[in-house]
Amino acid sequence: QVxxxxxxxxxxxxxxxxxxxxxxxxxxxxxxxMGWFRQAPGKERELVAAISxxxxxxxxxxxxxxxxxSRDNAKNTLYLQMNSLKPEDTAVYYxxxxxxxxxxxxxxxxxxxxxxxxxxxxx
Length: 123
Fold this sequence. Notes:
Number of helices: 0
Helix content: under 10%
Number of strands: 11
Mean pLDDT: 96
Distance between the termini: 41 Å
């Protein structure tokens, strides 16, 4: 069965860095687009970054230049490197499987989700 298991996250001061990992299993990881979403308290879940099966990337304006999404198909693992963190980055972060090929910009294009990990950025 499809599984996405996240690790990383935690508490960090503003300006710090964190790296999320998402270990995938149960499907041909290299064939699928993948995404990182986040949901802050009282807000809707939003797409933070996405990567196609071919390695093309998308970033939300709010994280562009600070976050980097990458994938290691040999290890079936998705990553999100987060630098220059701000208090407004505080949220639960989720990895998700997209369609084969390219990514979608909304959560409705993603069918399997990780368990979510909390990121808290203190000022």
